[in-house]
Amino acid sequence: MARRPPARQDLARLLGDDSIGLEARVADADHQSLKLWLRLLACSTQIEIEIRRRLRERFGVTLARFDFLAQLHRHADGLRMSVLSRYLMVSGGNVTGLTDELVKEGFVQRDQDPADGRSMRVSLTTPGRRAFERMAREHEAWVIELFGGLDAGHKRALYEGLGRLRVQLAGEPRQTDAA
Fold it and tell me: In whole angstroms, how far apart are CA 104 and each of 28, 57, 76, 98, 107?
């Protein structure tokens, strides 16, 4: 017999008023899309808080540093600072600050971009790559643990549904404030 998802009142009872967070704003009469949006936010926030806590306690790093290193790990030849900024969705100043810190710690190196001498390219050092790979292995185990209460079918359905939402959102024309 399939278990029904907990109602808002059940969630408040199970999680406590302090932990229900964004979903406390939902009323039974609200549109299902609004309920879904707030639940997505609540789940994402809850997972992010836990990952941040574990990264800080286990490795003494922030999620921003982890994400920075992850982008560089995916690009063995390094990335231009401007591209790294876009991938991380932060300002160039934020990337420069993180780069400076990680260069001092020996995790990354900054070199002239061979294709454009005006640009800098950032890449992982060998110690930086090793350190990130240790973090990434534990990070993956934490994510698997956090999703461990869902069976494979629920994970697949959630993944496919969110994929359809992403495609739909990418195809939506954007409204501007000029209306």
Answer: 53, 21, 20, 10, 8
Q: What is the pTM of this model?
A: 0.76
pLDDT digits (tens, 9 = 90+) for 17-66: 555 566 666 667 678 888 888 889 999 999 999 999 999 999 999 999 99
Under 8 Å between Cβ of 28 and 16 = no
Q: What is the pLDDT of residues 125-157, one digit of tens each?
A: 999 999 999 999 999 999 999 999 999 999 999
Domain annotation for the chain: domains and CATH numbers:
7-60 (no CATH), 63-133 (1.10.10.10)
> How many angstroms separate the CA atoms of 143 and 137, rounded?
10
CA distance 155 to 30: 26
